[in-house]
Structure formats: structure tokens, C-alpha cells
Amino acid sequence: MDSSNPSTRQTRAGTRSSLACLPCRSKHLKCDGKRPQCGRCIEFEKQCDFAPSRRGGLDRAALAERRKRLAAEVHESDSNGSSTPHLEQISQHQSEDVSIPIQGWELFDDFNLLDGATLGDDSSQPISRSSPQSHAGDLETDPLIKSYYESFHNLHPLLLPRAAFLRLVKDPPSTFNFSPLTAVMRLIGNIYARQEWSILLKDQTEEGLLQLSPDSPVLVQCRLLYSIALFWNNFKDEAKHQMDCATEVAERLGMHKSEFSRQYNAGEPVLEESWRRTWWMLYIIDAYYAGTLGTMNFRVGNIEATVELPCEEREYELEVIPQPQTLEDFDSREFAPSNVTFSSFAYLISAVRCAALAISTVPKVASKEDSAQVIHSADSIIDAWSLLLPKERRNVMSKTGQIDELMFQAHLPIGVASIGLHSPLSDLRFNPVEDMSSCAREPPVDNPSSDLVNVHTVRVLRAVESQIHLLALPSRPFHHTPRSRPAWSARGPLRCFQLVTSYCKASS
After folding, report:
1. What is the pTM (predicted TM-score) of this model?
2. pLDDT tens digits, one per residue of 87-97
3. Which site among 36, 175, 191, 349 is 20 to 30 Å from 363 CA-CA?
4. What is the longest distance spanned by two Cα atoms in the chain?
5. How far is residue 86's CA from residue 120's CA, in Å, rounded to a whole number?
């Protein structure tokens, strides 16, 4: 066929589909992109789902125009005597609140990471300039608090469940001041609701930090969440500083010890559980920073913890807290009775522990001599985690389409560790696109002997396939922890597909 024929090129352009449905995408099949069902899904009687694109967000000029419109609406509402007390008058403080559109969401538009933040008309309301000392009544109707709990809490469930939080804010124990916590919750909620970084909410968060005692465990929660928000928006140095401050306070208070949560529970079992979860989330996020930044400075991981493991999410939300299980219980789980189960949060903690241990068994820059060590030592650690997964934890998605977000996160470090350990020693060449990720590492100068190259290559391809399957889960809404973004970009979906296809072509 003559490719230079204009009519031929036009026909090709006319039949090309730029967006594949999720079932076709997950299997890397050609999709005609027809709505509501593509031809392949009709033929095989499959449910056809498309991830709606979120490209084409507002530019700075459009955002400024929107602020002017909102300010005019607020001014008109005030003149009619019907203003909402807890909303700010943006027109008076527009120069103070600079909302920066978050960069980089377009990389993940097709996966619709933020669809969980559906606030309806509330998301267009101006941000309140009220101080962090919020009232429980305001929080019940605050759209940004709603956004936090609907879009972020189930991904990082360290704070109290919503009902318990509102109850304790309304009638707090004399020991704690939970109000500053609402500022950072609203900052995170705003990121989901508006996809903007609000300078105003950032300032309110920092004001809230100053209100707390340096020995308050609430300060650990505030700094940890603030660190996640900063890191998420590429303020990595400040995020690491906040993490270091949170770790310092937590270690000084003894949050890693089992007696801490009982000492600070204020007679509330659900609060006791929240303190345990705070320590373990600190552990998980610190490990994530160490791996993402390549510093391998896992400070929290070097602290010997005796704090018990978190319970099941449904128990936490219902405030029915069982007797907590210990790390020793978990580490001997293969000998436990069949009726003894552990939470998804516990398996996430275990996955991070295993990934960190596996990585620590080999040098940061692997060489030919380390090839057998990776296969014998690191793989045994990673495989042990997978082999000991009970049947009910193997499937991340339930029959009803519900994703276990904590188990989703647990599979990520296992896959990333396997890819990171084996990729430099495999037959898969380093691609310049990998420089986009802070997770990627340069390959070694020399390669292992040929009989082991294939072992490393197959290990990488299996881990890549597992990561792609996670990414392609047809969930609605499809949004996951922001921590998953660099994990995917280390050997991201496009690069993973390139690896698989290039290797298959070379082998054929």
C-alpha cells in the first residue's frame, strides 16, 4: 500500500481511536473506541467501560476569571443579605489567596485519579478564611472536610473516622486540641475538590501547627498529613522537613511503644486505634520517601516498634475495636489457627517491611557478583510475602467491584522492589524516559553471567505485568493514593508496555 497517498492517510486518521476502553487496555488489545460499547466487548459480551478524560483543565487566565466571577457572586449575595457565614469574601482577599493549579495531573487523566472528589456545586464555593478553630457544626457541612473523607481517608486511614472525629471535636478530651487538624484536612480536601494548591489553606495549616503543643500527638498527625500534601505537590524538601519533625515528636513521645496508645486514649478505644495507625502510617510514608528520593535513609524503619497492628477498616469505622494483634503474632501467622486473620493495613505494613528488607540485602549499585544474592536472598523475602497471603487477600478487587485500597498499596512496594532489584541485572536496557522518575536507578556497568540474565529478566516482566494489572482495574471512581504515582512512573505503564513488547520482539 502506498503510504504517500493522501486519501490513504486520511482513511487511517479517520479510523484511529485515541482512547481504548478499560478491558481492551488491560489486555493491550486494539479497540475501536465506539461508545457506549466497543466492537470487541460486544463480540465477547464484556462490560465496556471508558475512563473519562480530565484533560483540558483551566489555565491561569481562566482560573482568574473564575475567581472574579465567584467574588462577584459573593458580593451580590452579601448585598441581598443572604451570605453564608463560614465562606470568605474572596473579593476582599484575592491578593492573599493564590491558588496554583496542580501540575502533572494530565499524566494520569485517563485513569481518573481524582474522580472520588465529586462535591457537586460545593466544589466551586470560595474557601473559608475562618481560623483552624472550627466548630463541629461547620465541619459537618464543610465541603472540603467531606472531600477529605470521601477521597483521601480510605487511602490513608490514620485519622479518626468521620463520626468519631466530629464527636470529639464537638466535645474534645481536655488533653487534646483537634481543631488545628481541620486545617490540613481542608488543604488536602481542596486538592481533590479543585485540583489547586491553595496558599491560603497552606497558611492556615501552618498557623494550626503553631497552636499545638510541641508534645501533642495531634502534632504528629498534622505534620504527617501536611508532609504528604507537600510531597504530592512536588515541595519535596519541605515535605521531608515536616516528616522529620513528625518523626522527632513521635519518637520523643514514645508513639512506637505499645503503652503509648493506651496512655493517650482518653477513654476512647477508637482514639487508641488512631494513635497506632498514626505510627504505622508514619513508617509507611517514611519508607516511601526513602525509596522515591533514593536516599535510603529510612529513619522510622530503624526504630524498634512494639506498637500493635491496626484492626480491620470496618471495625475502625464502626468504632468496634478488637484486642489488637502484635508484630510477633503476624510474623508467626503460618502457625496460627485458621480462624486468626489480620487486617489489610497489617499486610500493607508487612509489604513495606519485606520490600525494605529485600532491598537492604544488596548494594545500592548492583554488580555481577550480586546477581545470585538478589535471586537467593531478596527473592525469598518477596516471595514469602506473596506465598503467605491468605486467599481472601489475594484479590484486590471484590466481586462487587470494590477495591481494597490498602491491599492495592501493599502490592505496589512488592512489585517495585522486585523491578528495582532485578531490572539493572536483566536483559532490559535502561530507557531515557526512566530519568523522569526519581525512583529509577542507573544500570550497572557490567551485567551478570548469561545464565542468570534470563532469570532477572523474567522476574522484571512478571512484576511489570502485576503492576499493569493493578493499574488497569476497572474501578469507578478510579483514584488511588498519590504515593502510587511515582511507583508507576518508576517503570510506568507506558514504559512497562515498552519493556514487555520489546522483549517479546527480541525473543521471537
Report:
1. 0.72
2. 343 333 333 45
3. 349
4. 81
5. 18
